[in-house]
Structure formats: structure tokens, C-alpha cells
Design a protein that fits this description.
membrane; Nuclear Transport Factor 2, Chain: A; 195 residues; transmembrane; two-stranded antiparallel ribbon; alpha+beta; five-stranded antiparallel β-sheet; transmembrane helix
Length: 195
């Protein structure tokens, strides 16, 4: 009888130790950074002399010059811009357009600011929800000229409208023409036209 009690107590103690270990590793343990230093042995011309040189790793940063951004990168930027620009709700206060401001040319920034101001002043009804999500499917190049600092793309998108209190949805395809220009040595979206 005594051995069953001791066995039960041992099982409980082992279980508690395992649980404490799991909690520690899940919430408190942070693995140390791996040591990425490399050692090189440099042998001088003198006999029996060995020096150990520790070489610290050099942080490699990927720097992309605005001049080398090519057509493929601009297609990705166009697709991403259209997805964010074309996804919004009537209750978000045009956050989708405001967040894209850094990707817009000065001309488009001015247009966006005026558009938001005019639309907000019209006091449109936001009590009934309306939202739309946009997913870029295909991007075609219409024109790309690094020398002329201009590019134009057509982004084919799948869009889903959600409206009303019951969340009715309508799915459709739409394309957008995205015109880009190089402004201050950086590519910016100058115009988006939904067709």
C-alpha cells in the first residue's frame, strides 16, 4: 500500500517538474544569438608562430538604388498599390488613400487630399456598411521607359463588394491603369484610373 502512495507522489512530482519546464521554455526562455564569428588562423613566415584572428561578421544590408528599380519591381508596386487603393470601407475615413501618400507623386497627393476633403464634407451616410476588397491578379506593362522617367501598367483585379447589414456580397473583375513617374529620383504613382 505504501508503495502505491510513493509511486503516485513521484508521478505527481515528475508531472509538476515537466510542466514547470514547459512553462519556462514557452514564456521565459530566449535563445541566445548564434555566434557567427569566424576564426582564421594566419601563419607568419616565422616558424612555430600562429596567430588567431577573429573576424566579426559584417552586417549585409540590401540597398536598392532608385535608378536600378526595373520594370518587374514597378509591376509589383503597381499591383500592391491597386490592392490597397481599391480596398476600403465607408467607415474607415479613407485610411486606404492616406496610407498610400508616400507612394504618390506630388500631383496625386494633391488630388487625393482634395478628394478626401470633398467626400468627407458631403456627409455621406456611414450607418449602412459598404466595403470593397481588391486583389491584383495580373499586371501588364503598357509602357516602361527609365530614360523618360515614366511607366504605365494595367492591373487586372478581382474585387468583392460587401454591403448592408446582412453582409451581401458581389464579386466582379475590374482593371485599373496605373501611371508612374520618376519624381525626385524615386518612382511614384501619378494616376490610377479604374475602367
Amino acid at each position: 500500500m505504501l508503495t502505491k502512495k510513493i509511486l503516485a507522489i513521484l508521478i505527481i512530482i515528475i508531472f509538476l517538474v515537466v510542466m514547470i519546464g514547459l512553462v519556462y521554455f514557452m514564456f521565459f526562455y530566449t535563445p541566445s544569438e548564434p555566434n557567427t564569428t569566424t576564426e582564421k588562423q594566419v601563419v607568419n613566415n616565422q616558424p612555430d608562430t600562429v596567430q588567431t584572428v577573429i573576424q566579426e561578421p559584417v552586417a549585409q544590408t540590401k540597398v536598392i538604388s532608385n535608378q536600378i528599380i526595373g520594370e518587374a519591381e514597378l509591376k509589383k508596386i503597381s499591383a500592391s498599390f491597386v490592392e490597397r487603393y481599391g480596398s476600403y470601407s465607408n467607415q474607415s475615413g479613407y485610411k486606404n488613400i492616406k496610407e498610400l501618400n508616400v507612394f504618390m507623386s506630388k500631383s496625386m497627393q494633391s488630388w487625393a487630399s482634395n478628394y478626401i476633403e470633398q467626400t468627407l464634407s458631403s456627409n455621406s451616410d456611414t450607418s449602412v456598411y459598404y466595403g470593397i476588397t481588391t486583389k491584383a491578379v495580373v499586371v501588364e506593362t503598357v509602357e516602361f521607359s527609365d530614360e523618360l522617367s515614366s511607366a504605365s501598367f494595367i492591373v487586372y483585379a478581382q474585387r468583392v463588394e460587401t454591403f448592408g447589414s446582412n453582409g451581401s456580397q458581389r464579386s466582379f473583375q475590374q482593371k485599373a491603369t496605373v501611371d508612374m513617374i520618376k519624381e525626385d529620383d524615386a518612382w511614384k504613382v501619378n494616376r490610377v484610373v479604374w475602367e
